Amino acid sequence: MTKLTDPEKLEIVKLLASYCSPAEVVVAMREQHGVEVDRFQVRAYDPTKARYEAGDKWRAIFDAERSKYLRDIDGIPIANKAFRLNELQKNYFRAQR
Hints:
Helix content is 63%, strand content 0%. The protein has helices at 6-17, 22-33, 39-43, 56-71, 81-96. It is elongated and about 55 Å long.
């Protein structure tokens, strides 16, 4: 099992809180931090799983990040009705040509 620093653990918790799968977290950690972790190690930081082992500190961070993720739809363009309508309009014009 890889020894993780607190910033690496925080990144894992944030990714899990934003509904990334353990496999996606493994890839992200490899690509962004050069750290090799396995899915089982990642699952230990997910308090929604039965095998959660990270403790209260990381659970509180997970809960805060999950709440923030669920509330913050302004940063997602497709969540905006005007954006969706504009994209549909562009596709309509493309299809007409």
